[in-house]
Write a structure and sequence with these properties.
Elements lengths: L29 H14 L7 H17 L7 E6 L1 H12 L5 E5 L2 H11 L8 E4 L16 E5 L1 E2 L4 E2 L13 E5 L16 E3 L12 E6 L1 H12 L10 H8 L10 H16 L3 H21 L3 E3 L11 E6 L5 H10 L15 E5 L6 H18 L1
Parallel strand pairs: 2-3, 2-4, 4-7, 7-8
Antiparallel strand pairs: 1-9, 5-6, 10-11, 11-12
Length: 377
Amino acid sequence: MSQTTPEIRIPTEKLPNDGRFASGPSKVRPEAVAALAEIADDFLGTSHRKNAVKDIVGRLRDGLSDLFDLPDDWEVVLGNGGTTLFWDAATIGLIRNRSQHLSFGEFSSKFAKGVAAAPFLAEPMVIESDTGDHPTPVGTPGVDLYALTHNETSTGVSMDLVRPSGADDDALVAVDATSAAGAIAWDTDQVDCYYFAPQKAFASDGGLWIAPCSPKAMDRIREIDAGPRWIPPGLNLNTALDNSVKNQTYNTPALATVFLTMHQVEWFNENGGMTFSAGRSQANAEVIYGWAEASDTTSPFVSDAAKRSQVVATIDFDDSVSADDIAAVLRANGVLDTEGYRKLGRNQLRIALFPAIEASDLHALTECIDYTISQLS
């Protein structure tokens, strides 16, 4: 990348109406912000244990149950801190002794590293693959939790969620769904705990974790909490479960985050549920991947089309152009957060395809990129 941003002014008529393409925090829909402003005086700055807030939490939990078509005996559990904190809570309160982790990018590797450092657990079994691909879980006696990642945000790789053949009967499947939830369908028969933070497809802010849990997952949570293992109250999943069924969190949540998530969930459900939300992301993916495959200078980083994410697209550029320069020019023109993931270190852009993003804006983005390339060459 050059030391200074190339001075390229993209014609106004080419620019997207909304230039937010970050992979998280994501674009927040203006309609949700306006709805929050309408109720702010009676909602923001009020007790999270009173009905004004508990009603919103209840709508969020009910809406997610509808969106994911959860069985009646599942519960939507939530707490503060985001996915990173949930990994710590799961390390303490969901893994009995040994876990298996699929590692195929920055975020899928982090849970495994945290578990490996836990002195009260056996060494985790970690199955790795090259970036741009994903491994497959292997049913293994003695493994009591399989840690999968629905969508690896750093690389733009998605995987189908399938319970491992040969797994112990009481083994859990726990899925990091932070960038997939609400935009990629999944089957509750294959999963026991589907956890995520809402700053991606749910078009909210971070700082909250949400985890739909099966009866088997809730039994494990209660089992570990009743045992000899010491669990800090803020990381106690049983405490989170007990509070969630009362439509509240253990401690004070960010009320705006809760409301914006609820608003996005209800927008999905009012328009057709997962068929609607996943359909929007799929349409967005077709725009970006179709453009990348047709261009002489770009190609999708993930070579296997079946593994390409429909929520985060990673697009490689050939050596004739700098993706960093393109991202810098886009940012200078109000088109934001298209930079590649820093630790991946490739000559690429990373572009969000979440349901809140309009396909027309992604078409405009491709025109802006093509224009910028023409001016850089």
